[in-house]
């Protein structure tokens, strides 16, 4: 039964922005998803050094390798003042570009952004890349030198610190830190704020550096793929997967009260019907083997949305391409869908992008929104030899030319945080239901 205590308002996605390995705007991202065109490429995490990890989901059209913003390069369509750039980490630049896309897409005005009815929820791990540089500078100078923006440009709240004042946002501003489930939590809590009438709209923004410090650190956990071939390094649910491929960039979504979005003539990509969360209570870094926490998050999301497993047409999996994580998720999916005789199409788009860490949920929810509006279902790229645990599940190898009515989106993070989101296609059939 649907939770009726918080559904006075309907929540829709009414704006998108992307800076990603598979495209730097919605049109390019849509083409990549339809064609299953990945954005992985050879990458040197420490130039000149031999490292076993050689592939990443690279961001094209940007160069943020320098620790000084004056040496950064980005597409000509964006223009930023020096005072904006001086307090940004590399992923902060990507975030600003994604938000600029969102503002144009959603037809937001400066007045709406500053009206107190618009909030901002963000997630990132901060910038270990810049933090290392500034702390080395501090120690080398024996405490005499430290960049004045060294704190606000490096710690996890950096997106809030920079975006909120720039856009004069006076509504709710909050950051989320639950590892790879962070922006899924941001989306879920943003939906609740809107459903309860506390905010009209909330920008959800996730961004991450692609650097040695933020990505290669996972190598010590044996979590990264050592496969040097960009065409096969990220292969969720494949028997031969050996770890995830790192990526960075930014993704921005606007969650909004449906009536507000319609009154403004904003594009509506889909409706967020509900969400659920549950923890594994198992291990700080390893998913519970049977996927019990994720299964419970899915059940709670379905309950909140007022639907059954049979209603789900597509499941966008967390699917990082790690041996243990993928297996746990496959078991969770079977626990929820198999007893109901349900068989949604399943894929992990991380096969195309790599794993974007805390921004992954925002990025992939954006993909789901595009699929709903543009009319397709992303296939499972790079699946050559399915894990035996895939038996009985529907993982199409190619993108399907039709859109599902309902999508379930999974996300999981360190410590056992699991979040599931339910999205529905926005059509004449459901606008008034």
Topology (SSEs and partners):
Elements: E1 11-19, H1 26-35, E2 40-42, E3 55-57, H2 82-85, H3 90-106, H4 110-113, E4 118-123, H5 128-140, H6 158-166, E5 173-175, H7 182-195, E6 201-208, H8 212-215, E7 249-257, H9 258-264, E8 270-279, H10 292-305, E9 314-316, H11 323-337, E10 345-347, H12 350-353, H13 360-374, E11 406-413, E12 417-424
Parallel strand pairs: 4-5, 4-6, 9-10, 9-11
Antiparallel strand pairs: 1-7, 1-8, 2-3, 6-7, 8-12, 11-12
Helix pairs in contact: 1-13, 7-13, 10-11
Task: Give a verbal description of the structure.
The chain is of the alpha/beta class. The protein has a single domain, classed as Peroxisomal Thiolase, Chain A, domain 1. It is 30% helix and 17% strand. The chain is built from 13 helices and twelve strands. The strands form two sheets. The protein has a ten-stranded mixed β-sheet, sandwiched between helices. Strands 2-3 form a two-stranded antiparallel ribbon. Strand 11 and strand 12 (417-424) form a beta hairpin. Helix 1 (26-35) packs across helix 13 (360-374).
Key terms:
alpha/beta; 13 helices; 433 residues; disordered N terminus; Peroxisomal Thiolase, Chain A, domain 1; two-stranded antiparallel ribbon
Estimate nothing, just give the exact number of structural domains. 1
Distance between the termini: 15 Å
Along the chain, the helix and strand elements come as: EHEEHHHEHHEHEHEHEHEHEHHEE
Rg, nearest Å: 20 Å
Overall average pLDDT: 95
The assigned structural class equals alpha/beta
CATH fold title: Peroxisomal Thiolase, Chain A, domain 1
Beta-strand content: 15-25%
**Helical content class:** 25-40%
């Amino acid at each position: 039964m649907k939770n009726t205590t918080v559904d006075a308002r309907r929540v829709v996605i009414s704006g998108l922005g992307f800076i990603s390995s598979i495209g730097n705007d919605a049109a390019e991202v849509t083409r990549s998803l339809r064609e299953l065109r990945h954005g992985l490429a050879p990458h040197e995490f420490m130039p000149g050094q031999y490292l076993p990890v050689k592939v990443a989901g690279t961001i094209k059209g940007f160069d943020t390798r320098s620790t000084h913003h004056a040496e950064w390069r980005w597409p000509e369509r964006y223009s930023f003042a020096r005072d904006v750039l001086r307090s940004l980490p590399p992923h902060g630049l990507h975030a600003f570009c994604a938000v600029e896309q969102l503002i144009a897409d959603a037809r937001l005005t400066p007045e709406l952004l500053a009206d107190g009815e618009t909030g901002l929820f963000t997630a990132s791990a901060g910038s270990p890349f810049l933090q290392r540089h500034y702390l080395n500078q501090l120690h080398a100078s024996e405490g005499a030198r430290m960049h004045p923006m060294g704190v606000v440009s490096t710690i996890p709240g950096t997106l809030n610190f920079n975006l909120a004042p720039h856009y004069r946002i006076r509504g709710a501003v909050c950051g989320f830190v639950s590892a790879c489930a962070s922006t899924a939590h941001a989306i879920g809590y943003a939906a609740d704020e809107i459903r309860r009438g506390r905010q009209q709209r909330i920008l959800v923004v996730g961004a991450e550096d692609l650097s040695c410090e933020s990505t290669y650190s996972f190598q010590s956990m044996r979590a990264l793929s050592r496969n040097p071939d960009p065409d096969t390094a990220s292969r969720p649910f494949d028997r031969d997967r050996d770890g995830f491929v790192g990526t960075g960039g930014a993704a921005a979504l606007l969650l909004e009260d449906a009536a507000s979005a319609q009154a403004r003539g904003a594009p509506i990509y889909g409706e967020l019907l509900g969400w659920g969360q549950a923890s594994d209570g198992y291990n700080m870094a390893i998913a519970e083997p049977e996927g019990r926490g994720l299964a419970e998050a899915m059940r709670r999301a379905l309950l909140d949305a007022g639907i059954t497993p049979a209603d789900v047409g597509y499941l966008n999996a967390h699917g990082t391409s790690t041996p243990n994580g993928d297996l746990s998720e496959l078991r969770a999916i079977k626990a929820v869908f198999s007893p109901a005789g349900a068989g949604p199409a399943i894929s992990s788009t991380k096969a195309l992008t790599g794993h974007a860490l805390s921004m992954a949920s925002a990025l992939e929810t954006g993909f789901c929104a595009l699929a709903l509006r543009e009319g397709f279902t992303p296939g499972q790229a790079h699946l050559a030899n399915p894990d035996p645990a895939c038996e009985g599940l529907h993982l199409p190898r190619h993108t399907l030319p039709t859109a599902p009515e309902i999508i379930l989106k999974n996300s999981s993070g360190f410590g056992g945080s699991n979040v599931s989101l339910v999205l529905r296609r926005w059509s004449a059939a459901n606008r008034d239901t």
